[in-house]
Design a protein that fits this description.
Length: 506
């Protein structure tokens, strides 16, 4: 089946489902810091008073977190898609349908510092996602989401995470003990998206055309103001063909954590977690080997009046066993901050901020010191994603403001250094994704050809326009200027990226 046929089939299924949903409804008439590629969040102008009663749900990044069970009771004008958001059956069972279409265009100049032969590299990236959420009584649920990620035009492409013609992106079943949000037990089994730590720890990889997902079991427990989470999963390897995705044989992850209110401020929370990651073939500047790593982390975030802050501290222990040598201990660490102040009395709510990240590198002898970022998005280095979150110091002044309540702008200027000049730098796009040989990791620049620490700087600006509840438009440009380390390990051309996309959610 060719690509056009698959796309046509998906669209037909969606339209048929919508029509059937409308008929079923009529028959039973008797319900944060912004980043390039995301809708900016943060302190907003005070909202007008609204009538009491159920409010219209918002479309969420994790679509399974949406609850449309009260859409029929929402006050205000109806939406075109309301008939498929709550399709009731007998005995309180119901079905919700939804989806997302994203059309994106990338234009690279000297991609990856000039590694790519073409001076200009343009590509069209398209993503089509459709989901069905079935609830059976108070305790059971089944969620299915299909995804089609397509790529056209890039010379040498598609690259990893750009094309996945058709796949069951998520397919899981839930058992939930209670609808009470304060006291519950939730067991989830199957293929699922997981997001922890604002894209720093485990992310959906939304920036990439095909989002990241995991196969396994997760457990969530709510007890008052505390929430607990545990998981045992394997990352799913994305393959370009239809229905080819499968769990990676070479990696397994397990762990858990807790979330609680921030004791220092009313607006905020604190969290701690433990994650184990067993990688059979991990490639570092030190060499290739079996990486068994345990990560302990603490995160503190708050938003007192005007100010907002996030602090993360991580320690990694374990053992790295080279294929041709004795095992060595792992001693790695990371410290990440994001502080800002929003002028809430100003018309445009400007925010000035400073984000930093400090991640350890490897000396080349003794314990392995290279920090492993687990499963991040490009949160550490902006959407250019040229410098990975291992062996680096990063300092990023930021400034954002709202032209209107629907239009936000964000500018960043990042500066990068190596933490240890004996270690290389790693690209985030491929750092935690497998190649055909099953080896995980990609050394973007080895560390043994230069003793320079300064990698370079990156300036970027982005605008996000929320047209209505369904449509968001993003336009962004980033430019990376190489520093001494890159110049001493060529190619080292300045790299630029213009990215624009429109996203429609329903």
């Amino acid at each position: 089946m060719n690509i056009l046929a698959v796309r046509s089939l998906v669209c037909i299924i969606c339209l048929v489902s919508a029509a059937g949903a409308a008929r079923a409804q009529s028959d039973q008439i008797d319900q944060p810091a912004p980043q390039v590629g995301d809708v900016p969040q943060g302190p907003q102008p005070e909202q007008p008073q609204v009538p009491r009663g159920p409010q219209r749900p918002q479309y969420m990044d994790l679509r399974y977190n949406e609850d449309w069970s009260q859409i029929r009771n929402v006050q205000g004008p109806a939406d075109f898609w309301d008939p498929i958001k709550f399709i009731p059956f007998d005995d309180g069972d119901y079905l919700t349908l939804g989806g997302e279409v994203r059309e994106r265009f990338d234009s690279w100049h000297n991609a990856n510092f000039g590694y790519t032969p073409a001076t200009y590299l343009n590509g069209s990236l398209q993503r089509y996602v459709f989901n069905a959420d079935a609830h059976f009584g108070e305790h059971f649920r089944a969620f299915v989401q299909v995804e089609s990620a397509l790529e056209y035009g890039e010379k040498g492409g598609p690259f990893y995470s750009e094309r996945d013609i058709f796949s069951f992106h998520q397919a899981f079943v839930d058992y939930r003990s209670s609808k009470d949000t304060k006291n519950y037990f939730l067991l989830r089994v199957g293929r699922q998206e997981i997001a922890l730590g604002a894209d720093h720890f485990i992310s959906t990889g939304d920036y990439f055309n095909a989002r990241r997902t995991f196969d396994g079991v997760t457990i969530s427990v709510g007890r008052g103001d505390w929430n607990w989470f545990a998981q045992a999963t394997k990352p799913v390897e994305e393959k370009p063909g239809a229905f080819e995705d499968a769990p990676e044989p070479g990696r397994t992850s397990w762990g858990g954590g807790g979330f609680a209110p921030n004791p220092l401020t009313k607006k905020g929370r604190t969290s701690f977690f433990y994650t184990a990651l067993d990688t059979k073939q991990q490639l570092w500047n030190r060499g290739l080997g079996h990486d068994m790593r345990h990560t302990l982390g603490l995160r503190l975030e708050g938003q007192p009046t005007g100010w907002d802050y996030t602090y993360e501290a991580l320690v990694q222990l374990g053992t790295f066993t080279p294929v041709d040598g004795q095992g060595v201990p792992i001693h790695a660490w990371a410290f990440i901050t994001d502080d800002g102040y929003t002028f809430q009395k100003s018309r445009h709510y400007p925010r000035i901020g400073l984000a930093t990240s400090f991640t350890s590198g490897d000396s080349g002898h003794g314990a392995l010191g290279t920090f492993h970022p687990l499963f991040p998005d490009t949160a550490y280095s902006g959407k250019l994603g040229l410098v990975g979150p291992s062996n680096g110091y990063e300092v990023t002044p930021t400034f954002r403001f709202g032209l209107t309540r629907r239009i936000y702008c964000l500018s960043e200027w990042s500066f990068f250094w190596r933490e240890n000049t004996n270690d290389g730098i790693y690209t985030p796009a491929l750092l935690t994704t497998p190649v055909d040989s099953g080896i995980i990791g990609f050394i973007e620049k080895p560390g043994n050809f230069s003793k320079a620490a300064y990698i370079g700087n990156q300036a970027s600006i982005a605008t996000a326009i929320t047209i209505d509840r369904h449509i968001t438009y993003i336009a962004a440009y980033g430019y990376f200027t190489p520093g001494e380390f890159l110049k001493e390990t060529p190619p080292a051309k300045a790299t630029g990226l213009f990215m624009t996309f429109v996203n429609y959610a329903f």
